[in-house]
Amino acid sequence: MYKVAKASECLAITGVGINDIKLAKKSWILPGQSCTVVDLTPVNYTFEVQAMSAEKLPFNLPAVFTIGPRVDDDESLLKYAKLISKHDKLSNHINELVQGIIEGETRVLAASMTMEEVFKGTKEFKKEVFGKVQLELNQFGLLIYNANVKQLVDVRGHEYFSYLGQKTQMEAANQAKVDVAEARMKGEVGAKLRDGQTLQNAAKIDAETKIIATQRQGEGQKEEIKVRTEVKVYENQKEADVAQANSELAKKKAAWAQTAQVAEVEAAKAVALREAELQGEVERMNAVTRTEKLKADFLTKASVEYETKVQEANWDLYKKQKSAEAILFEKQKEAEAQKALAEAAFYTRRQAAEAELVSKKKEAEGLIAIGQAQAAYLKSLLDALGGSYAALRDYLMINGGMFQELAKINAEGIRGLQPKISIWNNGNGGGEIADGNGVIGMNEVAGVYKMLPPLFKTVHEQTGMLPPAWMGTFSDKTS
Question: Is the pTM of this model over 0.90?
Answer without folding.
Answer: no
